[in-house]
Design brief:
globular; mainly alpha; 79% helix
């Protein structure tokens, strides 16, 4: 590896400091918003949507620091990537506080949570999920395939999938999904497709983590619960064949889990 010159270090430090200044401004803004929330319960959920989006922006600034390091120094900046990873968890937690962290939850049980953000258009929710998903993928790509965080990203992406799903009002979405004349038709179709993809990917990822890494029952159970959540979506959309196939897969995974428990292969 070529020696890093003093000029290169200075250039990187200058760029990084500019990003860090903006990060500090955002974190101060977050602190002030949390103070307001603590003193006033009105509109808390909308404030937390804003906080979630603000944390995504902070993550992109950390990602930019890593980009500068790669460009100028030829080195990955693990500290910046790790800070981005942590702040994306914060973004997800703000969303979990609005719509829960429960994956296979009945839509009726989410009615109160969804009512609290009913004035946020589906297009806005979809865009928020797009931004969050992109930021997560950029962090994963930044760390690379051999990262020590490889299997922990299963949880990060899984929790993202849950809040993305729970922010979607399926009762309204089902109507708009099948109505090309609805003003929300396009956004609804795109959002539903995104949620289905995220939930299916998380089901597979948790099973992979179970089989290739942990052998923990809670991992394969999580995979099964993601499958059941995907089946619930297909049922809501009237896709009976797809729902039946997912049900069969969930049964197969459950039998695998039970067999592993009996043989002592699982933890």
């Amino acid at each position: 590896m070529a020696k890093i010159t003093d000029d290169a270090r200075q250039q990187f430090n200058t760029e990084a400091e500019a990003y860090k200044a903006r990060i500090n401004e955002c974190l101060e803004k977050e602190k002030n918003m949390l103070t307001v929330i603590k003193g006033n319960s009105v509109g808390v959920e909308y404030q937390k949507l804003l906080l979630a989006e603000e944390m995504i922006y902070v993550a992109t600034l950390y990602i930019a620091i890593n980009g500068s390091s790669l460009k100028i120094l030829g080195l990955k900046n693990n500290d910046a990537l790790n800070d981005a990873r942590k702040v994306l968890y914060k973004s997800i937690i703000y969303l979990e506080e609005i719509v829960t962290n429960s994956i296979n939850i009945a839509y009726s049980e989410l009615s109160n949570q969804l009512a609290s953000i009913s004035n946020t258009p589906i297009q806005k929710r979809y865009q928020l999920c797009q931004k969050l998903g992109l930021a997560i993928q950029m962090v994963i790509d930044g760390f690379g395939d051999n990262s020590k965080w490889k299997w922990s990203f299963v949880e990060l992406q899984g929790r993202f999938a849950v809040v993305a799903k729970n922010m979607l009002d399926m009762k309204t979405a089902v109507k708009d999904y099948f109505d090309p004349n609805s003003a929300d038709y396009e956004a609804t179709v795109l959002y539903v497709r995104l949620v289905k993809k995220l939930v299916e990917n998380s089901a597979t990822a948790y099973r992979d983590r179970y089989e290739l890494s942990t052998r923990r029952i809670d991992d394969i159970n999580a995979g099964i619960n993601f499958l059941l959540a995907l089946r619930r979506i297909e049922v809501a959309l009237g896709s009976s064949d797809e729902a039946e196939e997912i049900k069969k897969k969930a049964i197969t995974w459950k039998k695998l889990m039970e067999a592993d428990q009996k043989s002592g292969k699982s933890n």
